[in-house]
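Minutes, project check-in
Item: structure for the 245-residue chain
Input as provided by the requester:
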Amino acid sequence: MGNQSKYAVISDVHANAEALKSVLRDIKKRQIQDIFFLGDAVGYGPEPNESVGLLKSECKTIIAGNHDWGVLGLTETVSFNEYARIAIDWTKGVLRAENIEILRTAPLKSEISWLDITLVHATPCEPEKWHYLLTLSDAEINFKYMHTDTCFIGHSHRPFIIGMSPSGEFKTNKQEMNKSKGSRYIINAGSIGQPRDGDPRACYALVDESRIELVRVDYDIQSTQKKMSEAGLPHILIERLSYGF
């Protein structure tokens, strides 16, 4: 099988350029050209400008996430926790104009017809409301809003694959799944910069014609933590990177 049919989907970088660079190296090592980004380039982490710049140069599509919109003032941040709001305010003070423009022009949802995939940060149903898709009943609702066979999401920082057979049966896996004819899929690509499934390694989705895999990549967590500390970002955000929570 040629590399044309292989692609990578990444999400929730959250200004963690160390993690992003490690993942991009891993993707390049596999000779994959097509990378799609599901939003939340910024927030929490210490390198928003470098992160947005890398995403712009490496990704075919950039989707907007709720933290991106929070920085732009396009979504209310009242529902964000206190530490997330502190990080958003800090980011507003350092994000350069060209990177603000990249985030401002990013769509909330995109359908890539040649791959038959939908890209969205939160959910295909009401993407601007930032719902979480965490259960099979959430998935059942959202399958009805998909116009493609496969939809990639981020937002919860918890990777999973949900497959629905033509007869409507579900199967789930947190690491990999073989594709079967006629089935449809919702895939949470996990988080590059702020994993929350108990595994501190960066996570992304790797897909080809026959298989979906959630790949974990080590990165220099301490380097990111040092930069966060130097930026004066909240201690709790620094600590949680070590544990993936």
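Outcome recorded: Residues 176 and 213 are 4 Å apart (CA to CA).
No further action items on this chain.
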